[in-house]
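Notebook entry, structure prediction.
Reason for the run: the old model in the group folder had no record of what sequence produced it. Starting over properly, with the input documented here first.
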Amino acid sequence: MPASVAASMPVALWRRFAAMAYDLFPLLGLWFVAAALWVLAFHAAYDLAHPGLVWKALLGLWLLAVTAAYFVLSWVRVGATVGSRAWKFRLVQGDGTRIGVRTALLRFVLASLSLALLGCGFWYAWFDAGRRTWHDRVCGTRVTRL
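New structure, fully documented this time:
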């Protein structure tokens, strides 16, 4: 099959979920390093045995920011995360160009909300002709094969 035809075909939802599973591996490494940096930076004020609610919330926000940076930088610079490259697809604007930082941030926030709501935005792809998720539709993006 020619590359142009393959690129225009929608990517199956199971491939996207498989890519998300792959993306857990680099994220685990990033979270480990980020948490270590957090402890190094705040060891004097942070009680490891009994962290307070505020410290837990701040650590959670720090790890969320690291996660956002992973996805946003991957989408903006390469068009794909590690998992997306392994499953041979990438994220582009509706016209086929790379997405910008603002679009990537919005997509990350909407995809995170979608996952928090039991993946409702992802399941939407089953009913969309182009297999676009809810956050793809809102952001004007699509996932294409490499």
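Summary: The chain has one domain: 3-145.
The old model has been moved to the deprecated folder.
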